Amino acid sequence: MNRRTFLLQSGAIATATISSLSFPSIVKAYNKKPTIRVLGTHVTLQEAIRQQAQKELGINVEFYPGGDAEVLLKASTDPGSFDIYEQWSDSIRILWMANAIQPIDIKKLRYWHEINGLSKAGRLTDQAPVGMGDAPHKILYYQPDGSLGSTASNHISFLPYVHNTDSYGYNAAIVPKGIPYETESWGWLLDERYHGKVAIVNAPTIGIFDLALAAQAQGLMTFKDMGNMSRAEIDALFEIVIAKKRQGHFRGVWTSVPHSVELMASGQVVVASMFSPAVSKLNGMGIPCIYAAPKEGYRAWQGVMCLSRELHGERLEAAYVFMNWWLSGWPGAFIARQGYYISNPQRSKAFMSKSEWDYWYDGKPAAESLKGTDGRISVQEGEVRTGGSYTKRFENVAIWNTVMDTYEYTLMKWNEFVLA
Amino acid sequence: MTHHQRDLLLIEDSDEHAELALFYISEYRKDIHVIRLADGGAAMRYIESIRHLKAPIPWLCLLDLQLPKYDGHEILSVIKSDSLLVKMPVVVFTTSAAKKDIRRAMNNHANSFITKPMGADRYGSAIQSILDYWEFNMHPSVLAE
Amino acid sequence: MIQYFINHFQLRYRIYASYMAAGIVIFAIIMMTYVVFNKVAGHFQDFITFSNQSQIDLLLTAQVADIHRQTLIYTYEGHQSAADQVTSIYGNLIQQIDQNLQHSQPEIKRILTTIKQHLVNYHATFLQVKQQRDLQQKLINVEFRDNATAVERLINQLILQSDPSVATQLELKPILSSLLLVEKNVFRYLDSLDASYIITAKNSLSSVFGSLSAINVQENPVRSIVDQAIYKLHLYEQSFTQGVQRTRGYLYLINVVMAAEAYEIHYQSKKFSTLITEQMRKKEQAIHAGMREALYLLLLFGACLLMILITFTYGIGKSIAMPITQLTETFRELTQGSSNAHIPEYPVSDEISELAHAAAAFRDKNTQTERLLEESMQLTQQLEKNKAELERSNDELEQFVYTVSHDLKSPLVTSMGFIGIIRKLADQGQYEQAIEKLDKVTLSIERMGQLITDLLELSRIGRIDLDKKMIDLNNLLEQLTSSHSEQMRRVGFHWVIKPDLPSIYGNESRIRQLFENILSNAIKYTHNPEQGSKLEIGAISHEDHWLIYCQDNGPGIESAFHQKIFGLFYRLDTKQEGSGVGLAIAKKVMKFHGGDIWVESSSGAGATFWLKFPVPSEEMERVEHDTSSTGFITDRR
């Protein structure tokens, strides 16, 4: 399996941009049934889900998976090319500004009332702090002036569904094991001890926060508002990290999940920004990669499902049916087995075994070995999910993935950082 | 001329030859007293007695060579090696005319070598010549008498 | 080895072999040198390959930096030449990599493949950037301006067509300035890439939408124009938001995607560089080690081969020289006349074997010569012996003549002398005396006759009595005893013969005469009135001869006469009868029989005559046996 295959299979960041203007051709079944075209990432555009949806809903579903940047560009510039858009909350502002999506009518959402407070209020419990940046609720509701805000209304910009917390991973065979929420810190990314063996995800809207959290944890600088940095703050941050990179602190940036796995597996990297599938994969390979629970908190993300501005009629209705199906339990249980959470977990609970629920949501040790969606054992008996339960994790969110106003500027700075 | 008695030593084994010599000597010179010795052994003994002054040194010695026991050459050499007897003239008078006998006798200082002649009268004349020749030879002991 | 060569190969083949061995060794050394240099040349080739690859590496590093700079120039400045440059550099790089991919090690190949992949990705992304940028330019420069112009035109139209009522005019005028502001902010955004300008532009646009919508709330004649304006306004908004997205899109592509690809190329090329350096270092070490090893091996093999060659050549040389040296030694011995010189074994037939044969022939000649020499020496010795014998015989003859002349002359002198006396006596008339003297003459002449008889007898010995046979002395003496018993009894003489006398080989009559002479001498001269005269005869055996002794108890013989008594006509005592030939005859008889006779005695102690007879050889005894068996016995007595 060559690198190219990895790239194409990757559901992560925009790497496979080669084919961004010509979608992979999927054999269409031309029949009377309504057909919806779903544009999104590999995280949710999985064949098993599509098959299940077609089976349950009696409609045709076409998936057009691609890299983050690729699908965002596609969606924001050509609303006619898709019906449903599935991506991350940090793309909402862009799509909204580009007039690419239409507001979603809450009344048509069957399980709206079941959706928990994380998406509606930015937190699961009242005592939990709200993370910096664009917490989902801040961009959820359609405001009368056409903007997006947290004030509740009848229309929303996206349907909240899949979400998770991200952090960094480290190879416990080399890096001394830390204590979750106590000694594990984003600061490790800039720690001199791991000189030359650190990698950052090659995505400015994500990676910049990893670097910012690290710089802040190291006490190198502070931010007025990390979720909305000023150009001066960006300059200062990149000055620090570019200097570090020039000293050879970073192995580099990784551009896909397999790439991140390869870097750590080959020993080139011991501490790196990481996504949870990579950690699972490394553990499966026998590398004791620990997905850290940083004391500064996680960098969280919210999956969003949007409707194309040009979608109407029968297809619009079919799209609502598909959206409602996503919260109907089976899909939530399916993606739970991959480590992701769903916005209405209780409905999915019925589709999961108790031990599955206890492990994935309650943070308890696995009562038995658990199988992944591919049917292979992914969790050994007695294992405990790092970071604890769903609640615990989302009580520790430092920042949400966000597209800042300084997006273009950060891109140019990022270029400097990557090539430094 | 006065003839004193003179001793002549005749060393001759053959009786016949000795008789011939005696005949002619006595016929020619009555005064000569012949002392005849018949063999080498007797001659040696006599010579020894002369050397010890028990006998007078003879005037003349006629010496035959073919002798029993000691031959004439041996006797001659004894005589001529004695300081006293050396004065006595020794005439080798023999049948031999062999050169080796003559040479040997001369080497032993024989005073004369005469071969016995074979002829009816010549023997006598030979004796006469010898006696004449040595007539005036007087050695001290003879003179002292 | 040397012996093997000598035994199995001809001289010329041994010489050829040593030359061939030298040739082979030289060839082997040349081959080894060739292999070593070939190896070094191989290493050198590797080095050149590395050098080429490191050149690629340098090219990559430089050109990747260049290509990204050109990309950025194109992106921000829009120069087409920069885009062309990018494609050109890309093509060049790919070509270079492809060339090197053909002949590289797997590891280098992998890195180059990775680099190529990244480069391909990079270029593909660049093409997208270009496309996005073209679209963006088109949007901004064409659609955006067209829409802007259209909206402005419609607003102006509205201003012209609408009532010059203050309210509408007042609302329309700010719309124009707002539109201007939107346009201004959009270009500001494109200039500075600051998203806040877009927000401002969008806000301005929102106010325009609001104003226009407000106008259309009331019924008015320009409604359609307003609607048209709103529609165009939407297109206007859409064109610039799309422009923004396109901008963001290519910015993302270049700053994130392409940067990462460029960095990976950079990283991989660094890795490549490290790898090459490492491999070059290893190769260098390998070359050094290889060279050292090769030179060492070369030296070692060379030394070994030389050793073998030296040994072999020594062996060959020795195999040639040794037989020649040995043969030389042999010839030296042969030239000195040796007949038993050792001729070395030489089994092969060649020049040396010819020499060996020559040596053998030489030796045979030497043996022959030696034998001849020996024979000649024997002959010479014999000659010497014969000469001595002849001289002795001459001396004897001379002595004999001398003695005979004296002893024959003596009776003549006597006869003549007495004849002279007789004549003298007759002259004197003494006839009786004269006749008396006549007997003397007669006697003298008779003695002369006796002398002649004796001489004749003596001369016969060994001349006439040649017959020899085995004689038993016991028998012979027994006969002698009986023939003389009367005489002995008369004079009272004892004759004692010891038993076991040997047999000797000789002439019987002479032996008898010998013992007769001894016996008559004893009877004649032994006068021992006290003990009685006696002669004892016995024998003593020695290794190769018998000694017969005849011992009397007479007066003995002085030692001065022990030789003389055996002389011819020598008589110790002239008073006794005898011619003096008895012992001379005895001596001659003993000589004739290969023996000897001598006397041992001292005065007054008797005399012992020793007779030495050789022990008869078996041959003599056999001859005796043969002759006796035929009964042919000769007795000349």
Task: Explain how this protein is built.
- The complex is a heterotrimer of chains A (420), B (145) and C (637).
- Chain A folds into two domains: 3-164 and 301-347, Periplasmic binding protein-like II (D-Maltodextrin-Binding Protein, domain 2), CATH 3.40.190; 167-299 and 394-419, 3-Layer(aba) Sandwich (D-Maltodextrin-Binding Protein, domain 2), CATH 3.40.190.10.
- Chain A is 33% helix and 18% strand.
- Chain A contains 15 helices and 17 strands.
- Chain A has helices at residues 3-9, 47-57, 68-77, 92-97, 117-121, 204-217, 231-246, 257-265, 276-284, 313-326, 330-336, 345-349, 354-360, 390-394, 407-419; strands at residues 35-40, 60-65, 84-88, 101-102, 104-105, 141-142, 148-149, 155-156, 159-171, 198-201, 250-254, 271-274, 289-291, 298-308, 370-371, 377-379, 397-400.
- In chain A, strands 1, 2, 3, 4, 9, 10, 11, 12, 13, 14 and 17 form an eleven-stranded mixed beta sheet that branches.
- The longest helix of chain B has 14 residues, at 15-28.
- In chain B, helix 1 crosses helix 5 and helix 2 runs parallel beside helix 3.
- Chain B has a single domain (8-136), classed as Response regulator (Rossmann fold, 3-Layer(aba) Sandwich), CATH 3.40.50.
- Chain B is globular.
- With 145 residues, chain B is an alpha/beta fold.
- Chain C contains 13 helices and seven strands.
- In chain C, the strands form two sheets. Chain C has a five-stranded mixed beta sheet with strand order 2-4-5-7-6.
- In chain C, a hairpin with a 5-residue loop joins strand 6 (596-601) and strand 7.
- Chain C is rod-shaped.
- The two termini of chain C are 84 Å apart.
- Chain B binds chain C through residues 13-17, 19-20, 23, 27, 38-39, 65-66, 68-70, 94-96, 98, 100, 116-124, and chain C through 402, 405-407, 409-410, 412-414, 416-421, 423-424, 440, 443-444, 558, 560-561, 569-574.
Largest interface: A-C, 39 and 42 residues
- Find the CATH superfamily of chain B: Response regulator
User: The CATH topology of the domain at 468-636 in chain C, please?
Assistant: Heat Shock Protein 90
Q: How many distinct beta strands of chain B?
A: 5
**Secondary-structure element order of chain C, as H and E?**
HHHHHHHHHEHEEHEEHEEH
Q: Average pLDDT across residues of chain B?
A: 83
How is the largest sheet of chain B built, in terms of strand order?
Answer: 2-1-3-4-5
* Structural classification of chain B: alpha/beta
SS summary, helix count of chain B: 6
Order of helices and strands of chain B: EHEHEHEHEHH
- Kindly report how far apart the N and C termini of chain C lie: 84 Å
Computed Rg of chain C: 81 Å
Q: Bin the helical content of chain C.
A: over 70%
By CATH, the architecture of the domain at 468-636 in chain C is named: 2-Layer Sandwich
The first-level CATH class of chain B is given as Alpha Beta
Count of helices of chain C?
13
Mean pLDDT of chain C: 82
How is the CATH topology of chain B named? Answer: Rossmann fold
